Amino acid sequence: MSDYAPRQIVRVTIGPEIAAYGFPDEHPFGTHRMQAFWDEAQIQGLDRQVEVAHPFPATVEELTRFHTPEYVERVQRQSETGEGYLDYGDTPAFPGVYEASSYVVGSALDAMRQIMAGACSRAFVPIAGLHHARREQAGGFCVFNDIGVVIHTLREEYDIQRVAYVDIDAHHGDGVFYAFESDPHVRFLDFHEDGRYLYPGTGEASEIGKGEAENTKLNIPMPPGSGDVHFMQRWTQALRFLEEGRPEFVILQCGADSIAGDPLAHLRLSPNLHGQVASRLVRLAEDLGHGRMLAVGGGGYNPINIGKGWCAVVRALVHTPYGHIF
């Protein structure tokens, strides 16, 4: 395939409803993160190359496709008071946390539905990719797991079974991994900082799926300080692993906290690598004949990295040319 593939319609979700997903009191996951990305997108002119979508809220019915009803009710209650934590101390409640969280999930669902309807070929939701949330509780700044809801909805509404989930956030996507650990139809690929040095402490290379799902999960823990070269040493194997699953839908969680200079992690990937990964996943989806790809922002706590990394991903989605490093 040529580097200069025809541009497709790409939707990017922007709005105050998802920007509101952020925690108070100088918490690292603040409400400035969406704007850090969008400011850089405007500087680069990407805002003129994409179709801007407005956020949508998820319904309780949609949330409970992944989460337990008891947990959803708990978030609703604590959203009213803004008191306490939704996990063991990383994810505080705040007034309106339920509404903000439901907009994150609803926006990811809307992006997926637009792709499935053919209204766009690919989409990016910057404030999404909350990969630590478990079915019954929050975790690691993540209240509702939009990725899990999207996967269940693909199955229930579109009969899409084979999904590839690729995660290059510095932190292991434990909320997604353990939810689908025994599901042979979810190809799970996760590059992350070794759990011996970083939250959540999971994602060992030996975790390859259970039962019928054995060998459908690939965890690639990297030592602190790892950069693009270390990543690329494993990429050919990882891409072959994805191709073998022949996914009908591709999801990329492109957390910017794996980029050099993040205050909470210790990897040294480049923004360009984020774009290269997105570009290659676009080609994978197109080679499989459907072209369906949803990218979600995930983590990232350095505003400059957020802007550069996520814009590199969006450039790849609209097929701005990249040089080959694959």
From TrEMBL:
CDD domains, sorted: HDAC_AcuC_like (cd09994)
Assigned protein family: Belongs to the histone deacetylase family.
Domain spans labelled Histone deacetylase: 27-317
Protein's UniProt name: Acetoin utilization protein AcuC
Pathway participation: Ketone degradation; acetoin degradation
InterPro entries: AcuC (IPR003085), HDACs (IPR000286), His_deacetylse_dom (IPR023801), His_deacetylse_dom_sf (IPR037138), Ureohydrolase_dom_sf (IPR023696)
Pfam families assigned: Hist_deacetyl
Top-level lineage group: Bacteria
Key words, A-Z: Acetoin catabolism
PANTHER family linked: HISTONE DEACETYLASE HDAC1, HISTONE DEACETYLASE HDAC1-RELATED
